[in-house]
Amino acid sequence: xxxxxxxxxxxxxxxxxxxxxxxxxxxxxxxxxxxxxxxxxxxxxxxxxxxxxxxxxxxxxxxxxxxxxxxxxxxxxxxxxxxxxxxxxxxxxxxxxxxxxxxxxxxxxxxxxxxxxxxxxxxxxxxxxxxxxxxxxxxxxxxxxxxxxxxxxxxxxxxxxxxxxxxx
Length: 168
What we know:
The chain is α+β, with helices and mostly antiparallel strands. It has 1 helix and 4 strands; from the N terminus they run H-E-E-E-E.
């Protein structure tokens, strides 16, 4: 009887050790995916930041906010449901509502990330203007792994200014 009891205790101890190791490994994978998601978000934000502030500011300065275009979600979608990257993306608003699939390599395996982008007019302090054109736009990029469900969605935001092209 003592032998059976000691084997049961040993089995429970071993099971607990394996469970703890599994939890630690899952946490490590989750953190790795979050780090990679952050990399994808930062990379996309840099790409967006290289675009013109607005269609109206591509060719020169504008004198009032009525010349700025309203932010409208992109409607171009490719076969996978993600918006196309080539073509109509030449200013910040063109990224509004887009969902792009980006890949990264991990241990020789391709990992896919889904990146959605929201663009809205804002004040300098980040308060919404309820869609009214202004000298500032907030871009929010949300990225999640499509391969690992335990990783959190990463969101980063940045406010872009019209700068010297808006002279009002």
